[in-house]
Design goal:
Structural class: mainly alpha
Largest sheet: none
Order of helices and strands: HHH
Strand content: under 5%
Distance between the termini: 19 Å
């Protein structure tokens, strides 16, 4: 339970990325792959500059 409290923001961010990706995949497969790629790149840059584990 303590790990869940420590990583709550990251879990919410991941759930948001998953929901946006599912929405784009329902709209169009190409748009889904493009949006997923952009979100993964932005997540990597966020972890790079903010600092990860």
């Amino acid at each position: 339970m303590e790990k869940l409290k420590e990583n709550f923001i990251e879990i919410i961010l991941l759930i948001g990325i998953i929901n946006i990706s599912i929405g784009f995949f329902i709209y169009s497969a190409v748009a889904g792959f493009i949006s997923t790629g952009f979100m993964l790149i932005s997540l990597a840059l966020l972890l790079l500059y903010k600092g990860g584990d």
